[in-house]
Amino acid sequence: xxxxxxxxxxxxxxxxxxxxxxxxxxxxxxxxxxxxxxxxxxxxxxxxxxxxxxxxxxxxxxxxxxxxxx
Length: 70
Fold this sequence. Notes:
The chain is mostly beta strands and 70 residues long. 10% of the residues lie in helices and 33% in strands. The chain has 1 helix and 7 strands. The protein has a 5-stranded mixed β-sheet, with no helix packed on it. Strands 3-6 form a two-stranded antiparallel ribbon. Strand 1 and strand 2 form a beta hairpin.
């Protein structure tokens, strides 16, 4: 399966479609408990990662929101 992940081409072996949970594992995304996932411009609800799937040609962004400042 060919995806665009964080603006770069990525290939995932195996069956398509796959859940966001499986995608996070396959791509060895760090700090999974803090990542926000956007698929084709839509921000996904963390509670739906297991039920939400990505398919060939999708665009996925992994976002980390950090607090801080003065």
